[in-house]
Amino acid sequence: MGDRLAAALLHHRRRAGLTQEALSERSGVSVRTIRAIESGNRPNPQLASVRQLVTALDLPPHTQSELLAAATGAPEQVSPVPRQLPPDVVGFVGRADELGRLDAMLDSVDREQSAVVISAVAGTAGVGKTTLALHWAHRTADRFPDGQLYVNLRGFDARGAMVEAAEAVRGFLDALGVPPRRVPVGIDAQVGLYRSLVADRHMLVMLDNARDADQVRPLLPGTAGCVVVVTSRNHLASLVATHNAHLLPLDLLTVADAELLLARRLGRGRWRRSPAR
Ligand SMILES: Nc1ncnc2c1ncn2[C@@H]1O[C@H](COP(=O)(O)OP(=O)(O)OP(=O)(O)O)[C@@H](O)[C@H]1O
Ligand SMILES: [Mg+2]
Prior knowledge:
Blueprint: H1 2-15, H2 20-27, H3 31-38, H4 47-56, H5 61-72, H6 96-111, E1 117-122, H7 129-139, E2 148-152, H8 165-175, H9 187-198, E3 204-210, H10 213-216, E4 227-232, H11 237-243, E5 246-249, H12 255-266, H13 268-273
Parallel strand pairs: 1-4, 1-5, 2-3, 3-4
Helix pairs in contact: 1-5, 2-4, 4-5, 8-9
The structure holds adenosine-5'-triphosphate and magnesium ion.
Adenosine-5'-triphosphate binds at residues 89, 91-95, 123, 125-131, 209, 231, 233, 261.
């Protein structure tokens, strides 16, 4: 138990760029105590001291709970790893260039450490935006050890059933293991909690079928580490301007790919016998 706390405190103090002395000054906990905890010589420190340290390190809520659990010897919290992606499309065809561009966007994550990296897949109705984004998300699942969040925002639903950002955030909180009684009242607090929970994680967030940038904005994580893929019939130009989103305009499948898709869907024999050929 002491080892777990020791390792966690050392990790988070160094990550915050603080010496033991600086953390002591900031938290009011003596250097001796910090040193003892970090060396594993104080397996049962006073919980109040750990709270002071956690506050001084300004850690997101789930990391705070992990440290406090380590200090009390509570079993390690298994926070759920959400896997919300709908299934990949069977018989995906083409889009090699676009998949390559999405991969390149992912590689830029390491370079753009200070920003949430967003890719906005835009194009006309039914052109294959959702299918492309989903296929790519499945292909790259192993790059996101903390899982994937997905919401269909229904921005262009013919029945007008657009999903409000507040509803989407509550869905994400649920997927992140927040019990309903702990969901704060009010959209701002809910968004704040959502952003704190994803702050330390490497997750893919897929915001599918968005109407516009306003619907998307509250669902964007606040810090780097997460990658967001938005699909929309609109070009989401303001997201490009405000969040430096990488825009990926999607055109129709090439004729060869469309034929391949039809052949797969209809069965190769039927497609060949078609009078249109
Ligand atoms: N690359 C592809 N390979 C195989 N099937 C595809 C591909 N692209 C699109 N499809 C098929 O085309 C249909 C429409 O695609 P999709 O739902 O992705 O379009 P969309 O651009 O997201 O549409 P909307 O604007 O309504 O959101 C789906 O049934 C999907 O299976
Ligand atoms: Mg779609």
